[in-house]
Amino acid sequence: PYFSFIAFITVDVKGQEALEKQGREKKAKFPPGQKRLSIHREGPLPVLISPYQLTYALLETDGALEVLATIQVFTRCFVEALEKENKQLKFAFKTYFPYASPSLVMVLLQHPKDIPRGLWHQALKHISEMLKEVVEDQTHGSYGGPFESWFLFVHFGGWADMAAEQLLTSEAEAEAPEALLWLLAFSCGPGAGHQQRAQTMVEVKAVLRCLTKLLRSPALSARDLQAAAGEGGQGAPRPPACQQLIRRLVLSFLLRAPGGHAIAREVITLMAQTDAIMHEIIGFLDQTLYRWDHLCVEAPRSRKLARELLAELRGQA
């Protein structure tokens, strides 16, 4: 029998109207209340979770990777359950994503494994263009603001990770990946304005340029990679979201580059200066392995390294 994951999030809700306002602003802590996150198995189809509960969970935890991962697992299992039910929807997606563009929902519902690998970049570019139109074009007011679009996108967060991997390939670089850069910048900072998002894109592009050069280098060192990521530099400090995005790019590079395997542990030691960053790296490795399993990615050496690193870091946490 088919079982799907259900995320039950209990919160002290002080009114849907106030939550909508605070959610869109993505500011200020909410009043204390019951906040319990656990995963249970139910079947055959999940019970609908209120999007306002998930909004509370995301904002209360500052978008913690564990919460994002739970939302993404729930969404994937729910979509798979619907497919097993011959796609007979028990409710309209409009009910769950009241501010979402219906066409964007349908694009995000596509499973990457059903798209030829050579067309992934094209699919990501299309998603980025649709999101950008909704977020930056004020004529789409009926679809809400940036937070509503981001809230929809994080349910299908595997696309953002795919964009990061695509940007590390020479093919993506040759195809002027501005759309993928925008997608990553938006995924890590939905509350950022146009100028801040553009600055994030500039910084990420500079890091990618350095990583691409290192990819072709016959010898890699942890210090070279640290310098490429711009850590320890004299420039102005980056916003936390931008720093997190660059760390994810560096981790993707370590798993992908043959020379990165030998220095992965040293790089992570230099990178994980706090418990929060350590947990962030653990979450990234866990999500990557989960996504590779669902995409049937054949990368035995990278998988082996990711599993070893995950086990070691969990032992240290």
TrEMBL record:
InterPro entries: FANCC. GO terms for biological process: cellular response to oxidative stress; interstrand cross-link repair; nucleotide-excision repair. One of its GO terms (cellular component) is Fanconi anaemia nuclear complex. Pfam families: Fanconi_C (PF02106). It comes from the Eukaryota. PANTHER family: FANCONI ANEMIA GROUP C PROTEIN, FANCONI ANEMIA GROUP C PROTEIN FANCC. This is Fanconi anemia group C protein homolog. It comes from Monodon monoceros.
